[in-house]
Design a protein that fits this description.
Elements: H1 10-26, H2 33-40, H3 54-79, H4 84-101, H5 103-109, H6 121-143, H7 152-171, H8 174-179, H9 185-194
């Protein structure tokens, strides 16, 4: 692939996507700038125009993970503008679906693979943007009397932690999948959210996203 064909950041994005594909196939240990260049069909030196080293590439991949989640969270709020409860449920299911469809990208995004996050301002900014949008949803739910009163930031982090832990259990191996078959995964996720709500959100009272 001729690097001259790329303009306006296309090469950088192509390299990031190649890195995500390698992560899915080989994990972090199999990721290298040389492999990314080979998969993208560019010269071995091409990645160095955008990434100083493997850490910079991993940071860019993590940033894209946060960006994807952030953009979907914004869309959910726009789609269900008048229904904060639906926003929260859809956000939780969006998080789960992202992890199920792109487990390697999900794991890298929320791992400690980036050794110094403060060295990558774009990563920090996108992570902050994501939690800010979640806080908006949680705050709207509190105003509607849907969630228990509590400091909104702390509650948002608690809900995120619960959904993240739940999601991680479902992508960490087949043996764990088998042990979690006490109910359909969607119902279990609703039950997880129930721990923070004033009223019961079981499947009988709230339609599960399709």
């Amino acid at each position: 692939m001729d690097t001259k064909k790329y303009h306006h950041g296309d090469l950088k994005n192509t390299l990031i996507q190649a890195g995500i594909e390698i992560l899915a196939e080989e994990g972090v240990g199999g990721l290298s700038l040389r492999k990314v260049a080979q998969k993208a069909g560019v010269s071995h030196n091409a990645p160095y125009f955008h990434f100083t080293d493997k850490q910079a590439l991993i940071a860019a991949i993590s940033t894209e993970g946060y960006r994807s989640l952030y953009e979907q969270l914004v869309l959910i709020q726009e789609t269900f503008r008048e229904d904060p409860r639906r926003q929260l449920v859809e956000a939780a299911f969006m998080y789960l679906r992202f992890a199920q469809s792109q487990p390697a990208h999900f794991k890298v995004t929320f791992s400690n693979a980036v050794e110094r996050e403060d060295a990558y301002p774009a990563l920090v900014e996108m992570a902050d943007n994501l939690i800010a949008e979640l806080i908006k949803i949680v705050g709207a739910c509190q105003k509607a009397g849907i969630l228990h009163p509590a400091p909104v930031g702390a509650l948002a982090v608690s809900i995120w932690s619960a959904v993240h832990g739940f999601t991680s259990l479902f992508i960490d191996g087949q043996s764990m999948h088998e042990r979690l078959k006490v109910a359909p995964v969607d119902q279990l996720l609703i039950f997880t959210l129930n721990q923070f709500t004033v009223a019961d959100w079981s499947a009988e009272h709230f339609p599960l996203p399709e």
